[in-house]
Specification:
Largest sheet: 6 strands, antiparallel, barrel
Strand order of the largest sheet: 1-2-3-6-5-4
CATH class of the largest domain: Mainly Beta
Distance between the termini: 57 Å
Radius of gyration: 22 Å
Number of helices: 5
CATH architecture of the largest domain: Beta Barrel
Shape: elongated
Strand content: 35-45%
Amino acid sequence: MDNLLTQLSSDLAARTAALQAAAAALRLPRGRHVSAIVWQSDLVVTSEQALPERDAFDLVLPGGVETKAKLAGRDAGTNVAVLRLARPASPPALVAGEAQAGALALALGADGAGGTSVRLGLVNAAGPQWHSLAGGLIERRIALDLRLARAEEGGPVFSAAGALFGMSTLGARAKVLVIPTATLERVVPPLLKDGRVARGWLGVALHPVALPDALREAAGQPSGLMVMSLVEGGPAAKAGIVAGDIVLSVNDAAASRFRLIAGQFAADSIGRKAALRVVRGGNVLVVDAVIEARPAP
């Protein structure tokens, strides 16, 4: 047993040493930093939610080499930001891997001075695709059974064999999630091209509410999303939606939570009709709106 543990320890240390060139650090204000993946020789990707609203950053590459990084694009929907480097890096060859529950996971981070940190844990869950609260499609829901410092967020997560599971991020209650490699591969090109990922939009602010008992039978569900406000001239306003309407469904997708209807507003939804089933004045009616592209921030 001791020999097996010694061999495992040596193998993990060797694997970390071979992969550490994939983790870099982006310096933040007040002496803080966040980790990033050296995606290509001239690109890094990191956690969008960890980056302040600015265009230029100082980057510390593995080994302590410093350079500048300029924001190329960011997408809150998938929590991905991509930056271009002023000088090339030398990343290891990144090979995508498919996470499975129970597999070992190595979460690498950067220490801000050219060194690397590593966390060892298990893939706690590897579920199907899901939509974030910001409306982004993420190819798989991968959760890790380990703790992560905030400075390590945005770094690469590998299998024990060195395959890239994706990028680490902190979810609700500091749960460690992975943005899969497939999501990064899909999102990086439009971010480089346009600086953003286009998604559909109705121009409404929604809040979950319980339906009065008298309306539940007619609605066929116990809750919905109340329209709190509308953007003047937005798709919902043009369709006749008014504040106080309770949205029950969008194209037959139940609207008890926004995450359940987020898939209706993917990039390919722009220009399509959205059939909104709503409660207004005690009556259930259907209002048709045309989904438009969300305006750039």
